[in-house]
Structure formats: structure tokens, C-alpha cells
Prior knowledge:
single chain; 195 residues; alpha/beta; five-stranded parallel beta sheet; 9 helices; 5 strands
Amino acid sequence: MTTGPRLVIVGRQGSGKGTQAAMLAEHFGIHHLSTGKIFRDSAAAGVPAGLEAKAFMDRGELVPDDIVVAVVEERFTNPREIERGFILDGFPRTMAQAIELHSILESAPIDFVIDLSVPKEEVVQRLLERGREDDTENGIERRLELYEQETAPLLDFYRARGLLQTVNGVGEPADIQRKLIELVEQRVDRLRATV
Ligand code: AMP
């Protein structure tokens, strides 16, 4: 059985994690799972769960854990999706979600977590320039606050398990891309070699 890398990418909004996750997915032929994108697409299609999620997103709040976990669980009902490898982008964002993820994946746990690190001041600037529908000043501020409260503790959780790899997310996207590819190649080779 060939298995692709099983990755998580974490970072403040505006860190570039969506762009880098899409690039890694394409490079390694793995599944890119962005919970934010799933919600935006299903809201645009008028799906009730998507519209419900959008109400939270527009306020800069997190979508409740049960809704998010159900979406991820559904994507992983097919074991092939796990075997093929994946990069989770924007999930988990809370400790409760990290624990759920662990049980969803059971025998095929994640290989490691990329922390794409960009300072707060820099992401605020980037988000204001990006101007997505939910990128209002209040929304940005609230999302960054929730990142510190709910998501930053995950970094310690994964670091304590030897699963955290911090990458500096400031610089040319192409350079960061190169660094990330190298990191995944090295780390996954090393992990698979010890199995
Ligand atoms: P993103 O596309 O990752 O920037 O996510 C956009 C928005 O979707 C976030 O600000 C949250 O409101 C919501 N969202 C995405 N993923 C999650 C998650 N794992 N937990 C809670 N809310 C989420």
C-alpha cells in the first residue's frame, strides 16, 4: 500500500496557509481539505449547513465544533482518502477538534503539523489588502483573538508530541514553497523509514 503524507497546516489567517496547502496538495498528489472553503462553497450553493456556518464566519467567530467535525468526518468516510494522503488546512482550530481528529484517523494518524508562522502585525496588513467578504476590521480582530485563545494552544499540544514543525511564513511565497516541499520530503521519508 502506498500512502501519501498526512499533514495539518496551522497559521494565523493571512499567513498564506491556504495558498501553500494548495501547492503542497498538488505537488504530492494529496487531498486538500479546507474547512473554510467547504463552508464558503456550501453557503454559496445555498446548503442550509453552509448558510448556518456563514453566519458565524461573517462575524469572525468560529463555526461550532460539531458542525466542523461532521464535515471532516464525512470527507474521511472513504478510507482511500486517508491512504492517498491529505493536507488539512484550517482544521483543527480548537483542542476539541484536535481530539476528534485523532479518533477519526485512528490507525493512520497525522505525520506532522506545519506551523506557518507570521507575526500578527504582518497578517493584519495582508488581510486588509486581501479584502475577502469576511475580512472586515472587526472580523479580522476577532479572528486573531480567537487564534490566540483557541488555536495557539494546539501548537503546544503538537509540540509536546514531537509533531510540530514551525516554518517562517514571511518572505517570497516561492521560497516558502521550496522550504515546505523539502521539509515534507525529509520528514515523511524519515517517518516511513522507521515503520
Ligand atoms: P479559513 O478559510 O480557514 O480562513 O476559514 C474561514 C472561516 O471559516 C473562519 O474564520 C471560521 O469562521 C470558519 N472555520 C473554518 N475552519 C474552521 C474550524 N476548523 N473551526 C471553526 N471554524 C472554522
